Amino acid sequence: MVKFSYQLVEDTAKELYIRALKILPPDVREALKKAYAKETNPTAKEIFKTILANVDVADREDMLICQDTGLPIYMVKIGSKFPVDGAQIAAALKEGAKRATQEYPFRGSSTHPVTRVNPQTSVGEGLPIIFWDFAANQDYLDILMVPKGSGSENMSAMKMFIPADGVGALKKFVIDTVLNSGANPCPPGVIGVGIGGTADLVTKLAKEAIVRPIGSHNHDPLFAKIEDELYEAINSLGFGPMGLGGSVSTLAVHVEWAHTHITLNPVAVNTQCWPARRARAKIYPDGRVEYGF
Amino acid sequence: MATYTLTTPLTEEAVRKLRVRDSVILEGTIFGIRDLTLIHIFDHENAPPVSLQGSALLHTAPSLKKVGNRWEKICIGTTTSGRMDRFTPGLMEWYGVRAIIGKGGQYEGSLEAMRKFGGCYLAIVGGAAAVETQQVVEVEKVYFEELHPEALYQLRVKNFGPLIVAMDSHGNDLYSEVKAQAEKKLPEIYRRLRIAT
User: Fold this and answer.
1) Most buried residue among A236, A288, B114, B127 by CB atoms closer than 10 A?
2) For B131, which of A54, A179, A273 is closest by C-beta distance?
3) What is the pLDDT of residues A56-101, one digit of tens each?
């Protein structure tokens, strides 16, 4: 019987990166098919046809969906019944991401911010990005891998409003940000919105929002309503797939929130492209690895 | 909405016929190019080692594997064109480039260069790299190899597309049209959501 080891975490981190680049989650496929069926603009219809053909080709030929291999993000949830060493997990994730890049091999997209030298490893100083979270009473280690492409990431925005601006200012900011992003983030994708917290937390919440499965809603009806309002507003803009006109401009709007300071009113937008890529693995103490999304 | 199959090198006559929303399939050879390649050519003054007259340039940074002297394709897709906007007028005026293939579109200066020199912007479906990779038959040559994955790539293509004419040589820009229409809808959206403006 295989037992849990940090080598297993490393191998899983490698496998997750490659899986995320190749296998589109079922909820995203479903949303794209529905969008194709719903779309009436002939140019947009043609674009959805190519999108669906691309997903098929990637499956059939075992190919990458998109050439942007992104920056690797690992969202880790440690079960409280699974005593592990976080430092060793972090090291294993970094090595796994690097091995995926060099052994597959695919283009490393990470680069030095000043010299612009690309180490061709997908990792480096501060990379991969790792989010840590904990799950009470669970006996597994849950790892969600998200390769984040730059076309969409470049369209991210955050703003510190004041309480007097109200919630209307937040909604306006989201709609205006999406409109100004136009064709750049490969729409229609998922719009992630963070509300509340601090400057850093609100941005993180927006990132957590883009990885939620399409079709899910915020558990709080107040925020679920904001999701619906923004979804409808953005889809009535008519910029369509790839920003060339059409009725489907976004597949989903997800909001995540946190309490904030009495004088703060922050909002953040993180956009995800139509290949809203993600891959999940649950690792159990007996060494079992369950892959999913 | 006409459909054209064009073979490279592209003539001015062929490009002038294209109008926004037309659909184009390319045959022949195209060149892959990106941020660093263009900075290398224009800012560091390294002339392209191959003629780009009548060429179609693809905004890309591919995943390739070098086997001996040959480059094998792994994944060839398209990147956001807005970042490379400032190079398009020079490419068209000095090097005779006729088409930019990309996603997201470009801006005023590029549109003006397309009008003046007979160029166009062809939108590909971003993110659809599996399909795109299959339409590239062969990586024929890599120039400025030290810049890989941002070198200059000579790619032989077959049935490359469908590409949508998003900016034409008559001053039409589909991105601006779509954006202007969206902006017209904003007041009604704000009103519905009771957003003060």
Assistant:
1) B127
2) A54
3) 999 999 999 999 999 999 999 999 999 899 999 999 999 999 999 9
CB contact under 8 A, A118 and B82: no
The verdict on A265 and A178 lying in the same domain is: yes
Task: Give residues 127 to 186 of A whose Cβ lies within 8 Å of B.
Answer: 149-151, 154, 166, 168-169, 171-172, 175, 179, 182-184, 186
Q: Which of A175, A21, A168 is nearest to A109 (CA)?
A: A21
Whether residue A169 sits in one domain with residue A220 = yes
| Residue in A with minimal Cα distance to B188 | A233
Residue B180 contacts A, CB cutoff 8 Å: no
Residue A231, pLDDT above cutoff 90 = yes
CA distance B177 to B183: 10
Segment B134-162 mean pLDDT: 96
Domain ranges within chain B, ordered by starting residue: 3-192
The ipTM of this complex is 0.94
Identify which of B63, B182, B196 has the shortest CB distance to residue A67: B63
Rounded to whole angstroms, the Cα distance separating A147 from A157 reads 19
**Chain B partners of A67 at a C-beta cutoff of 8 Å?**
60-63, 75-79, 129, 132-133
Does residue B103 contact residue B81 with C-beta atoms inside 8 Å? Answer: yes
Domain B3-192 CATH class label: alpha beta
Size of interface A-B (CB pairs under 8 A): 165
Q: Which domain holds residue A207?
A: 151-272
